[in-house]
Task: structure prediction
Amino acid sequence: MTPNGKLRLGVNIDHVATLRNARGTVWPDPLRAALLAEAAGADGITAHLREDRRHIRDADIEALMAGIRVPLNFECAATAEMQAIILRHRPHAVCLVPEKREERTTEGGLDVAGDDNRLADYVAPLREAGCRVSMFISHDPRQIEASARIGAAVVELHTGLYSELHAEGRSDAAEAELASLRKGAAFAHALGLEVHAGHGLTYDNVAPGAAIPQVMELNIGHFLIGESVFRGLGDAIEEMRRLMDEARG
Result:
């Protein structure tokens, strides 16, 4: 897809599983959430299978692969265990992320430049299996260039700092971070990478990122699952879709 085309929305359903696991029951079902998201206009479903299985579990990946019609974006750390799971399921897309047991959520981007030889070897069999491999990185040109060099098809730019600065009302700093994201997106596109973005995006801050012409997909989860408590998941997604389309138009 060329820049300025329809912006895709990937809905991350991890925190439906977080809520389920809090009581140790089978409810709420992440697959049901994924199907509702699909019906509400999501272009893809994102699920992060963590080493500690704190939210999404292996059985959820099995159910999502069998049950959804839109593409699955499988997020994971670049470990041997996860590579074996990917090669067994062969999801449409794989997004490699940094992961620490003690973190509440993914902190910062993957250091591709500092681990390029290992990651190149890691990515190769995933590409051969037909997966579109993405690197979840900062807008640092070194990380973008390294992602292209190791054979990734996509980079997902981490919007967490921008989102935090926006929420804190630090408008000048947020605008500076947004300018860096714009430059990063343009650079990645020039290298032939497809550009995605995500982390911390809400109704209040999504428009500027959605308006970046090189960004082809936004992945949003925690806010939408939280907002669904008040307005229902379908309505929450439809409103995000509307805001994205308005910003893009």
